[in-house]
Amino acid sequence: MARGAAFLGSEVAIMAGAMSWVSERHLVAAMSNAGGFGVIACGAMTPELLDAEIAGTKALTDKPFGVNLITMHPALTELIAVCARHGVGHVVLAGGLPPKGSLEAIKAGGAKVICFAPTLALAKKLIRSGVDALVIEGMEAGGHIGPVSTSVLAQEMLPEIADQVPVFVAGGIGRGEAIAGYLDMGAAGVQLGTRFVCATESIAHPKFKQAFIRASARDAVASVQLDPRLPVIPVRALKNAGGELFTAKQREVALSLDEGRVAMTEAQLQIEHYWAGALRRAVIDGDVEHGSVMAGQSVGMVTKEEPIAEIIAALIDEAAHALDKRAA
Ligand SMILES: Cc1cc2nc3c(=O)[nH]c(=O)nc-3n(C[C@H](O)[C@H](O)[C@H](O)COP(=O)(O)O)c2cc1C
What we know:
The protein is an alpha/beta fold. It folds into 2 domains: 2-203 and 303-323, Alpha-Beta Barrel (TIM Barrel), CATH 3.20.20; 206-297, no CATH class. The protein is 45% helix and 14% strand. The protein has 12 helices and 11 strands. It has an 8-stranded parallel β-barrel with strand order 1-2-3-4-5-6-8-9, surrounded by 7 helices. It has a 3-stranded antiparallel β-sheet with strand order 7-11-10, with no helix packed on it. The chain is globular and about 65 Å long.
């Protein structure tokens, strides 16, 4: 983990992946204070809100943390400027390929850039464009997902790119033995989301946490695409009535497309806004029936609420044992 930890400036190379509404100042600061690396989820925040969130996080920790920005945010340039003003050390770009000039702008502001690499070809392209590190995330993860599993992505990509930039593996990691496995394969570190939702320091609604504690792996299912003309990125969440509401939303947006009332980009934006609202409804309001309870397949390994430092300690302990057994 030394390479990943040196890159992040943390004690251990475990990132708490940004989770909209969940990854705010308390969880992020607690993660970094526990020796890991917290990442603020900017999501749809305005530059003013992000400014306040970064300032609030800095008040709770003097350890390094990152900020996750969504590439299609209309105010991306201003958000990058906010990060630079605060001297944020690491910006994670999510939601598609970085728009022209964004990598350069982040680096000019003094931060390192971390991007998600969905395929080997795009990973190589991103490395050529100057990214400092990559995350490869499999379809076991919670939230928006790609079509390929973590184990396949890791086998396909790590041997080709792990010596060029630090690579963090994400999706489906619930225990330290899996972390040891990916480190063995060349990863510099890992990123977990689902495992941290029920941390004591997480502000997620008690009902949201309860749903995680009750759920098993097979409850965390991917959304289906209703209309072939309307490409929606699948989202993995716990099965509930909200899933049907999403199907209805897709039907409504597809009809607007048919009738020429919206263009394709606007239609896709409407879908993304829908997810942000549905996630807020579940995380903040506690409506786990009609909101979106985004969760990865590792949710079955979340069995109680516990301080983030204990989660990190357990993961490191499991990883160390696994590596010791191999050395023996
Ligand atoms: C509730 C929830 C919300 C998420 N929101 C975001 C987000 O806003 N931006 C992002 O890049 N990833 C998001 N993710 C993905 C996480 O950052 C992380 O990569 C993922 O959870 C790792 O897989 P795991 O859930 O199997 O640990 C979210 C995940 C969850 C569970």
